[in-house]
Amino acid sequence: MSHEVSEMLTPQVADLRGDLARIAQWVQPQTRVLDLGCGDGTLLAHLKRSKSVQGIGVEISDERVLSCVQRGVHVIQQNLEDGLAMFDDQQFDTVVLSQTLQSMHNTEHILREMTRVAREAIVSFPNFGYWPHGWSILLGRMPVTGQMPYDWHDTPNIHLCTLKDFERLSLKLGFSILERATFNDEREVTFLAGWRSTLAAYRFTADRSKPSRSRA
Fold first, then answer.
1. Parallel, antiparallel, or unpaired for β 199-206 and 187-189?
2. What domains can you pick out in the chain, each with its CATH number?
């Protein structure tokens, strides 16, 4: 692929989705990054160009893997449910899982694996605590919104949670939350974030001094 084509396929920060732009800010230059469920490689392509990171993506979709290759992103085709056994302990500086956590069957396992393979972990997910969701349930229907656009019978989202839910799970697993960012569509919100945000992103690390609690 020519340099000109690669340049055209590499996204600028203004083109990144809101949570991805914040995630990109959290990643340090010239570090090793693992992007789980990396999609078309948008984030890694941006980080490679703007911060000279060494990035690897993991993606299951044939079409998205091809898009990664076209962007010059190193990608491994694998189902995340199979785990991260192919990666060594602390092989990366940062591991990212954006808008995929809610579709994972074994949530605790993937979070533990993220903190095993990297010094820091970043996740983003839809906030089920967004106030219109509660109103929709009061009216007798499961919510359908921009961040959760599926009907109940065809949704890939199997583990929905609120901000407090994720923070409680992080405490249970022995994680230390370093930063949180919350968004309503592309706009970042801070006031009453648990009610007003449609999406949350967290940067966290494992507290190595405390063993994570096993599931009861």
1. unpaired
2. 3-206 (3.40.50.150)
